[in-house]
Amino acid sequence: MKAFALGSKAGSFDLREIDIADPSPSTDQVLVRVHAVGVTPTELLWYSSTHNKDGSARANAVPGHEFSGIVESIGSQATDFVPGDAVFGMNDWFLDGATADFCVASEKDIVAKPASLSHTDAAAIPIAALTGWQGLVDHGRIKAGDRVLIVGAGGSVGLMAVQIAVMHGCRVIASASPSQADTLKELGCEHVLDYKTQAFEDHLKDLDVVFDAIGSDTLARAKPLLVEGGRMVTIAADPKTATIR
């Protein structure tokens, strides 16, 4: 099959087209004919892009670990899908990704694609949605009634975070570009602050959770706005330089 792979030498990132063997699903995997693939720029920095699970150097890694497509075949113990099913999801970082004609994935890492969702839109969801869920639900411990500020709400993760917070019954305030205001209000935000002209610390207080998708000085600016026991979660701050006053 055709695939786009990273450099022929470990650590090089010249994306190029190559011919490789079609993958075969193991017992609990499915083989997916790829219709669309999500591209994550930071994937070039992932350990799995340059190393195998055993720590050895990895060359010719096929990137793109979020995708949408049609089930081509299934492993001997796979029971959730049948050939012809439309699915989307992700696969293990150490497997070849979906910048290829086919990819394999564990059944637990994919779901049925709604008919109302295009393959292109579906392929853009998995990593952003997982990041938002882990940040708000697993670490932010959001609950109904929480006042949640999402900084960088107009980005891919931010848009997912807004919907996750609204789904959990939170009162959501967004800091984003004004061009995104109508969309964010349609998704359930109570207020949308223009990040260029409305510093959120000048307008807000008594926040239960702050979700930061921007980095920079967001945490330092947000900490004084939290109620006692409030939580801050960041997916963007540099752990070496971030400060919290």
UniProtKB/TrEMBL annotation:
Highest taxon of source: Bacteria
Per UniProt, what is one GO molecular function of this protein?
Answer: zinc ion binding
**Domain named Enoyl reductase (ER): which ranges?**
11-244
Q: Mind telling me which InterPro entries this protein's record contains?
A: ADH-like_C, ADH-like_N, ADH_Zn_CS, ER, GroES-like_sf, NAD(P)-bd_dom_sf, YIM1/Zinc_Alcohol_DH_Fams
Task: Note one Pfam family from the annotation.
Answer: ADH_N
Per its Swiss-Prot or TrEMBL entry, what cofactor is needed? Answer: Zn(2+)
Per UniProt, which keywords does this protein have?
Metal-binding, Oxidoreductase, Zinc
Coiled coil segments of this chain: none
Q: Which family does it belong to?
A: Belongs to the zinc-containing alcohol dehydrogenase family.
Put simply, this protein is called Zn-dependent oxidoreductase, NADPH:quinone reductase
